[in-house]
From TrEMBL, chains A, B:
Cofactor binding annotation: Binds 1 thiamine pyrophosphate per subunit. During the reaction, the substrate forms a covalent intermediate with the cofactor. Binds 1 Mg(2+) ion per subunit. Can also utilize other divalent metal cations, such as Ca(2+), Mn(2+) and Co(2+).
Protein name: transketolase
GO biological processes: pentose-phosphate shunt
Site (Important for catalytic activity): H247
Reactions performed catalytically: D-sedoheptulose 7-phosphate + D-glyceraldehyde 3-phosphate = aldehydo-D-ribose 5-phosphate + D-xylulose 5-phosphate
UniProt cross-references to NCBIfam families, sorted A to Z: tktlase_bact
PROSITE patterns found in the cross-reference section: TRANSKETOLASE_2
Domain of life: Eukaryota
Amino acid sequence: MTDINKLSINTIRTLAADVVLPWVVLQWPIFYFQNLLPVTRQIHTGQINRDRFVLSNGHACALQYIMLHLTGYDVTIDDLKQTPGHPEAHLTPGVEVTTGPLGQGFANAVGLAISREHLAAVFNKPGFDLFSNYTYVITGDGCLQEGVASEAASLAGHLQLGNLIVLYDDNHISIDGNTELSFTEDVLKRFEAYGWHTQEITDGNNDLNGITTAVENAKKVTDKPSIIKIRTIIGIGSKNQGTEKVHGSPLNPDDIANIKTAFGFDSSKYFYIPDEVRQYWRSFSERGQKAENDWNDLLKSYKEKYPEEGADLTRRLSNKLPDNLAAVLPRYTPSDSALATRKLSEAVLNKIADIVPELIGGSADLTESNLTRWKTAVDFQHPSTNIGNYKGRYIRYGVREHAMAAAMNGIAAYGGLIPFGGTFLNFITYAWGAVRLSALTGFRVIYVMTHDSIGLGEDGPTHQPIETLAALRALPNILVLRPADGNETSGAYLAALKNPLRPSVLALTRQNLPQLQNSSVEKTLQGGYVLEEVDNADITLVGTGSEVSLAVDAAKLLKSEGIKPRVVSLPSFELFEEQSLEYRSSVFPDGVPIVSVEAMSTYGWDAYSHAHVGMRMFGASGPYKEVLKKYGFTPENVASKARETIAFYKDKSVPSVIFRP
Amino acid sequence: MTDINKLSINTIRTLAADVVLPWVVLQWPIFYFQNLLPVTRQIHTGQINRDRFVLSNGHACALQYIMLHLTGYDVTIDDLKQTPGHPEAHLTPGVEVTTGPLGQGFANAVGLAISREHLAAVFNKPGFDLFSNYTYVITGDGCLQEGVASEAASLAGHLQLGNLIVLYDDNHISIDGNTELSFTEDVLKRFEAYGWHTQEITDGNNDLNGITTAVENAKKVTDKPSIIKIRTIIGIGSKNQGTEKVHGSPLNPDDIANIKTAFGFDSSKYFYIPDEVRQYWRSFSERGQKAENDWNDLLKSYKEKYPEEGADLTRRLSNKLPDNLAAVLPRYTPSDSALATRKLSEAVLNKIADIVPELIGGSADLTESNLTRWKTAVDFQHPSTNIGNYKGRYIRYGVREHAMAAAMNGIAAYGGLIPFGGTFLNFITYAWGAVRLSALTGFRVIYVMTHDSIGLGEDGPTHQPIETLAALRALPNILVLRPADGNETSGAYLAALKNPLRPSVLALTRQNLPQLQNSSVEKTLQGGYVLEEVDNADITLVGTGSEVSLAVDAAKLLKSEGIKPRVVSLPSFELFEEQSLEYRSSVFPDGVPIVSVEAMSTYGWDAYSHAHVGMRMFGASGPYKEVLKKYGFTPENVASKARETIAFYKDKSVPSVIFRP
């Protein structure tokens, strides 16, 4: 260990003691590995080939923010005094992914590593290693206990992601106490079983040369991800070092003073950084700036030699979609065949996969059900497997919904790619921890969720979503799109692609649906629109997805009785809420009572309707038509609910769903 | 292999081909192991010491239902023709747990195995092995890829659950195709790393003696769970055997006929069971009946020798709570200290843990935050660890939220125990796959979820629930309880305990709350009640949990201006909805506009209010008072919203939230 590294470590240890939550950083000497990286931590995150760093044990946030400060990112000493609880990628430049919920960062890193391998395979040319970065992760015991990390580790081993290097802080302490309470497995043996390269450092508090060597070794292993287990003492220097007391609560002032003295610092100084440490760390920024300049020069020459690829890459990096996207989307008229929206989704993918080469998709082992694989797709696999290659854009995620979603967040975070992935709508909740972070961070991830209601039939109530759309609609910053036919399915994809700062969920049917009169790709972007209008209407029927055609059929019944129904399709609450008051009140005019129909929980539908046909219980196993009938999703029952509602409001004023306090 | 076993196997294979979903069973010869079990598959599920069988790969449902038929459960041939998509414990006797969502059954089995070890430790006496059963699981590649199963496997290894025996059907096929596409890890090595005993059968299609021996070996290993990897060919006998074609879609009639002929059966007969097979299997029922009689006799003698333990066990098995439960619950008056509801929850646990010995609790490594460990608690640990024993009732689940919830389902399924477990409310979504099955199956599982809003402060938006309560309220058959103070916290526990057929979620604060005037244990059981009444009210303020005292403070402000506010506490939508129309309309009388206040998504609140103070976005990191203020959770802002709402309805009729079409 050189003196300046030792001084840097001790500076970080004492700085950490000063941060609002001083308990988080002291455990870490491994920050040291950061100065081993060739192209890490650019001041400008714009250089896509920068090394990626993920602090998966996000509660050690202070470590990352202190390092961002030292390396010249826009994190001031004053910012350090208000370090957030966990790293926030949506707020702080230099934080690649938002972490904290345990296991997420680890799984994000698998996505970052996939992106790097894929883009290298697509764009690198002899003499032009445009994509050559490494993906570094610091993780702790907590992350490694989480299922999402296990799933991601198995996937990373299968995909042989050589650029992924994980440093495992094995400090034997979690919040409850020593890991002997609950976590006694042989972690490295488990990772060997996944196909990882493993190494161990027994004295992580002091053996910095060992860490250096291990990282260099890991880089040499190009066909396996690496994990380095580093035995450390949590809270080193504190009188409570090595116990959970330094994990769960702040240190007291005396202890902080002792730590500073022990490390040779002035205990009366706060947020003190020795000049030589500042200077030393500035050299990393300079190295980073040089790496960025070199890469930009490389890209320039690349564009000259490979103008087509260069233009594609430039377009992708600027987040611009191909101009002809809307034009190629499939469009339908009522004379076209009835089809399931999952099938219509497949048609969209077949149309756009080649013209949007940044799309990289997959499924959690439900390819034939989700219909997520387009005709010309090649699997993303290690070339040695002979069943695909790294240029391939179809990812076999296996039965790993949570890792799929978290990896997609990582893919989106890397840049230059738009990930989508499929499973049954009901199983998006298996992945919720990651879906929530797609929304919080604002990643353009497209969830292609099929079998979207009790209309899936035979699989039964374990597979039939009930609460799922309510949960998604209550989640901020995510688009929920439930298209009713072919035009709306094309519109849903257009909405998802055109929103670079939020994820989208496409809820798609297993069962066939007719192509509707008056449905529209463009109107879908407004979230809701009138499908059938009538003067002096008695009732508005509003539906989503498969229940829009049901509403149309119910309207026919009502018309035959002389009742005047309007029909509204509402594929997305979120997009609709963004429309003007004027527009919204034209869709739901005052004075006309509204009945909603959606084969899902009615919870939340009071926002747009006065009465509901929906689910208040779990579904059942059976042929889908019988199941739908059992729960009242028939034209007759919807018409009946409409008549009741009209009668109820006969002598009463109808509350407006648009004009509210 | 004896001839009758071979004939039984072929009978099941051909029966399976006749079941509505004929693709599921053919892969299985391992059903054979079932006749190795000493006390399995009682006709009467009432005998608690029966061996447990869990079909974790629930899509192979037909296998289980055919075996239930053969062993004399109430599953007829006609029922077989309508076999559900996945095993449904809530509908079919003999199905221990509802499976299908992959990985759940495996993790349920860990809970079943915990219950068996715990109850044996508590009740067994020399000569009285009341609890001695084994827990058998069949699992497939899909389950073993799921994070929840990984978490559960690590936990089971740590807890050294020797009664757990897993048969892993290694058929190399998942829905997407060969497992080489996505699942190439060394599964047995991984389980060795978890601390499991592992064995392998290379020809599972034929080597039934090998399976017998392996199961016997597994039973001899008493301090480790066991997994037996059994290499099989999926769809054996079909022309598509060994491919995903027999996994994802039904066989055609010709192929079914071929299979029957190949196995020596008449291809023109459907649902045919040879008499000798029927007779042979009947002997298992008889053996089961004898085992049950023997156990009942044993229990009778036990009660004579150990009357106290015997009475406790009898009470537990009849699902009766101790009589004095309500009497011992803590009760508060406004002069008592302000406390966080998590702290009040701890007080309840300290009061009831000893008088409700069937309570078995834990936390996903957040014990000091959730406050789930009562003073006299002993850890549930293998006795060799010297940090607890199997009599212990506090489970250190580790950072494994999903496995915790799924294991709790298994604990509840076993009988004689009431599991509870803690994490932050936000992370109940990590466990959603299992929470959903608690609700669907109707297990009394108590989720003790603390840090229940942006009021948790410093941990920031990654840990602050927004959508969570909406998701839970939209889920059928689960109680969501958000108590506002000490009395309501006691009431919430009472509600949870008194509902044997549904799970409950307790949403508890990190921050202190005052003890309210007029709050009540008993009124909490009504879900909602009037806290402050006034004649000719101008406005009703309704809140839950931490926002009830905020509503009270806002009401004070309004009163000081001459406005007449009512205040309602609504700890549980579900319980409130079960009250009479008369009662509900007394809580929310017509003509009085309502403002809700809840530091959570407003989605769904239109059901009980006209205007909302709530969250439409993610929260932020910071001290909790600042965070709450930032998002408008102040008496001033609530009062302001109330004034706006009163003004809005000045010349309009106020829509009733109770009387609706």
